[in-house]
Each structure stands twice: as C-alpha cells, then as structure tokens.
Specification:
With 368 residues, the protein is an alpha+beta fold. Helix content is 41%, strand content 20%.
Length: 368
C-alpha cells in the first residue's frame, strides 16, 4: 500500500468516539478510495467491493472486525471534517506533483447538482477546484454552498496551494482586486478574464481595441478538430499607462483580446466571440492564446470527466458532509488514475481495467 497515501489517511482526525468504533478510520477510507477507482461509488457498493475482495484486502489491511457496512461508510463520510480531508488531499498532491515553472493553474467552480437537499434546506454544493495543466491533476479544492461564495473561496484556495512560478487563470468571476493581489503575493502571475462584473475596466479595454489593435502584438492559430474549423486571434498591449485605476490591480502589466471564429464543417454559419483579459506576466500574444486554451483543460479534463465517467451530477449523497467529502475522494481517484502513465487508456478504460485486474489497481495506487 502506498505509504504516503496511508499516512495521510491515518492522520485524518476520527470524528467517531466511544466503544462502538469497530473499524479503523484509515482502513475504511482505503476501501472507499479503492472502490471509487473501480466505479463502486455508492456506500452499498463500497461494502460490496470490500466483501468481494476481503481476502485480497487482508494482505495489507488488518480488518479486525471484517468489512465495514454501508452504514459505516455513510456515517464516516457524513461526519468527517471537509477541511481536514481537503488539506490532507493538498498535502498528498504535493508529494506527486512535478514543480514546473510557468505551469498554468486554472481555477474554476462546479456545482454538484443533486447535492441540494430541499427537505433539510441545504443548497447544492459548489466546489472551486485548481487544475494543473502541466501535471494534468487536481491541485486542491474548496466547497461552498453558493456559487456567489466562489469569490471568497478562491483566495482561500489560492493561499493553500504552492503557486510560485505558475500562471493562474480564472474566469471573470475571479477578476477581483483582492484575488489579483493574493496571486501576486503567492509569487505567481495571473491571466484574468474581464466581463461585465468589472464594467469600467471592460469599457476601457473595448474602447482601446476598437481603434488601437493594429499597434499590438498579434498572433493567430487555425485548427480543424471535432468536425469544425476554429480560428483564434490574439492581441496584447503592455502600454497601459492610460488605463483608469490600473494601480489597484496588483502587478498588472498588460491587457489582451482574443477573437474566435468557429464554423462546423459543411455549414455556412460562423460563430464569433470576443474575450478580454488583464495579465501580470510579460507575455506575447501567442502565450495569451496558450494560457486561454490551457484554462479550458479544467472543463474538458476535470469537470467533463467527473460528470461523464464518475457520474458526479447523478450522486444523491447529501447527509452531513457526504457530498463534499466524496467529491474530494473523486478528485483523489482521478489524480491516482491520471498519475498512472504506463498505458494510454482513457480514464474510463483505466477504471474498467482496475475492476478486472487487482494487480493493475495496485499499480494505480502506487504499489506494483
């Protein structure tokens, strides 16, 4: 069993008390993560996974009182402290993460739709995650009960991460003065999207590009994929002494614009979009295109995978802290799967392989 993983599980404070504790907390959590990797994500399925593989599990777990029941799994995840789980997750990620100067770290939020509990007046859980483009893994997360709280959750998450030398990208909801300051104070740079929530800044940048784009650094890319053509053009300017209130944006060095044109193969319809940015790093127009493209990795490689492969939006785990804690375990499972690079199988196919090969499952968790 992966020593680092076991040590983090063993260090998590046990919310249970009294003589009724029949199963070691770290062993309950080990069975849970193994089951989730193998697509046994409900508490009843975790119990089934343990029962079917009890003999194998006893080769590295004591299981003094056998396999935990589904009620035990449910009670543990409902009672565990989300902050403890999230902080241990981040500690573990730092043991496998390759530090790469210039890594693009994308911050974005996602609502777990069916975590809403009307009967108990609980809002759906909204999770803010950090995604490393270079490593292809989740670096950390924080959960809130409202999307509007994303603005306060982002700085908290940033302070928990090691970001020195990275470029942090965030959509417009994160384009806030304090968030920019937090990123700069962490030794990182930012590329922040500008939309209507920063109306004066948006108007100034739009006005500039309506007449001055010819004076900017320019780059373009052309791509054909997924049955469509897409042209992306980028302009940046670092001559921003004219920008109103620019001094309130810590470290700002320039503004950018990206124009995209998309057309389905065989169609005459052209979709146009224009996006605006502020950034703190000395960069070229091509580097802005690269950073913007990398930002969408959190949608395609994290949120889409959680929905399609882990069926996250179908999960009805709502009791106590279950929704938040199971979400961390999904991220943990995804990181373990992504970190296993001996095969080029998709996440879904790797999970299926783990179901039918315990040897491969051991390889995924770092034991082979």
């Amino acid at each position: 069993m992966n020593g680092t993983l076991m040590e983090i599980f063993r260090d998590i404070p046990d919310p249970r008390s009294g003589n009724g504790i029949r199963h070691r907390l770290d062993e309950v959590l080990v069975i849970a993560i193994l089951a989730i990797i193998c697509d046994f994500s409900k508490f009843t399925e975790m119990e089934l996974f343990g029962q079917e593989h009890e003999e194998w599990l006893r080769t590295f777990l004591s299981l003094e009182n056998g396999i935990p029941s589904h009620d035990t799994f449910g009670d543990v995840f409902a009672a565990l402290s989300p902050k403890a789980i999230q902080s241990r997750f981040i500690e573990w990620v730092e043991t496998i993460r390759e530090k790469i100067n210039g890594d693009i770290v994308s911050i974005d939020g996602k609502t777990i739709r069916r975590s809403k509990d009307i009967a108990n007046n609980k809002r759906a859980i909204h999770v803010v995650s950090a995604w490393s483009a270079a490593n292809g893994i989740v670096l950390g997360e924080l959960a809130t009960e409202e999307k509007s709280n994303e603005i306060t959750a982002i700085p908290e998450l940033l302070k928990m991460l090691e970001l020195k030398g990275c470029i942090v990208t965030i959509d417009a909801i994160g384009t806030q003065v304090e968030i920019a300051k937090t990123i700069i104070n962490s030794g990182a740079d930012y590329v922040l999207a500008v939309k209507e929530n920063q109306s004066e800044l948006l108007q100034d940048i739009r006005l500039f590009y309506s007449s001055e784009s010819a004076l900017c650094d320019y780059a373009e890319t052309n791509e054909k994929s997924h049955g469509r053509y897409e042209k992306r053009e980028s302009w940046i300017s670092t001559d921003i002494d004219w920008l109103y209130n620019k001094d309130k944006w810590a470290g700002i060095t320039g503004i950018g614009m990206i124009r995209s044109k998309r057309q389905q193969v065989g169609s005459d319809v052209v979709e146009n979009s224009v996006r605006y940015f502020i950034f703190s790093k000395d960069m070229t127009a091509m580097e802005l295109l690269t950073a913007n493209r990398a930002h969408w990795g959190i949608e395609n490689s994290l949120h889409w995978v959680l929905d399609m492969d882990f069926r996250e939006d179908e999960s009805r785990m709502r009791l106590g802290n279950c929704a938040t804690n199971i979400n961390v375990f999904r991220h943990l499972a995804l990181n373990l799967i992504k970190n296993e690079t001996s095969t080029k199988l998709s996440v879904n196919m790797k999970r299926k392989r783990c179901m039918i090969s315990l040897d491969y499952l051991l390889k995924v968790i770092g034991v082979s």
